[in-house]
Amino acid sequence: MPVIEEAVVNTNSDQAILDQGMNEQKVNELYKEYQKKMYGLAFSFVKDRYLAEDLSHEILVKCYLSRKKFNGDCSLYSWMYRIAVNHCIDFLRKRSRQRDFLHEDFEQSHIAVVRTPETEVLNICEKEELRNKLSLLPSMYEEVLTLYYFKGQSLKEIETHLKLNLSTIKTRLSRAKKMLREMY
């Protein structure tokens, strides 16, 4: 039972800390006390030191700005932890959306490539050179590459077509690509 009383006392002291005038010294003390904890939490989400530092700073600023919303129902750390987790999740969502937009922009920029007679001739020459190099590969590797890249078949379709294990097809595909890279 004493543990519960300590938690209540601790919550009350947390509330008292925030209710007191927040002078610069008090803010710095709280910042130093919670900075490493918020950094560790942010790092567990983003796995990047510099990004975690930025996020932990943003989290602590956010906590400071919304300190009036802390009502003392839980400990200060629990309240800050919840803000930190939500902030990290929001950050990851935004970053994911930004990647999607960048990926779409990248695809559109490749679609918008101007086709000139020179680029067409170069494409034809590159394809011809690739086919010549493919013909130099052992037939089992050439067959897998042709089915996968030129005929557009999935690994499962190649598995049923050639009556081979999926792992065998993956191995042959990997070895064939490696052989082609060495030829270039």
Automatic annotation (TrEMBL):
Designated name of the protein: RNA polymerase sigma-70 factor, ECF subfamily
Lineage of the organism: Bacteria, Bacillati, Bacillota, Bacilli, Bacillales
GO terms for MF: DNA binding; sigma factor activity
PANTHER family cross-referenced by the UniProt entry: RNA POLYMERASE ECF-TYPE SIGMA FACTO, RNA POLYMERASE SIGMA FACTOR SIGV
Residue ranges of every copy of the RNA polymerase sigma factor 70 region 4 type domain listed in the record: 128-180
Presence of keyword Transcription: yes
GO biological process, one term: DNA-templated transcription initiation
All copies of domain RNA polymerase sigma-70 region, residue ranges: 30-97
Family in the record: Belongs to the sigma-70 factor family. ECF subfamily.
Entry keywords, A to Z: Sigma factor, Transcription, Transcription regulation
Record Pfam families: Sigma70_r2 (PF04542), Sigma70_r4_2 (PF08281)
